[in-house]
Write a structure and sequence with these properties.
alpha/beta; Aminopeptidase; Alpha-Beta Plaits; 2 domains; four-stranded antiparallel beta sheet; about 25% helix; elongated
Length: about 300
Amino acid sequence: RKANNVWAYNKYYNPALPTILLNSHHDTVKPNFGWSINPFTPVVENGKIYGLGSNDAGGALVSLIATFIHFYDKMDLKYNLLIVATAEEEVSGINGLELVFPKFKGIDFAIIGEPTQMNLAVAEKGLMVLDCTAHGKSGHAAREEGDNAINKSIQAIEWFHNYKFEKKSEFLGEVKMSVTQIKAGIQHNVIPDKCEFTVDVRVTDCYKNEEILQIIKQHVSCEVRARSTRLNASFIDTSHAIVKAGVELGRNMYGSPTTSDQALINVPSVKIGPGDSARSHTTDEFIYLEEIQEGINLYIQMLQRVMA
């Protein structure tokens, strides 16, 4: 254990063998105010288990733990298995998987447990949040003086709205840039000398975050600061053994627009787990019990095919 992250290896761990990482997170978002039941008390009703984090990502985590237990004491495996339950996924924190991953040597590939209806997210968009500032000169709004920072920011915002990056991802499509916050001015009769706005950038596997940042800085005149460039997009080759195993079992491949801990590791990984992403972070969050059982069965079958 380190901080709020715990892990375990299979009983007959062999350092000469490659290792498969099984990972999901145990942290949750805060409950919203609309819950009709206690979000911290699990309730089983009509084939569903209700509770905060049941769908995101408790179902995936317990399914991966059950899968790990299935293989735990088997001898002569072709791979080691490493189960890691991590924290701070929901806040993209530095004390979760990113903190402990460097400790693990010989990781060949990873299964990241998130609610995907047990379909294969073979690509996942990265995330970069930009804080932008346009500078002007203050003056009285009644006179022709000053240099309006809002007008300068409008030019940049129009660029963010209209610009198309050259490369398009097979599974993730285009890079998406959205201006989501803006702040300027101190009162109605003062020309603002500063306008600040925030841009949410969803990066595809065609680019690294640093590449996108440099392209943006070349095109806009305002000040641009990235809060972080560490959450890069990910992609696993569709010919990879774990992907082929899933496809053979009838699972679909797709590109995920949402970011997970996949962004923090530098090995091939596939995001797959029981539950539905549409239920994540919702009031009275739940997962079907049969989804968890299906998740366990499919995880086991996929790994059996890889290790056969």
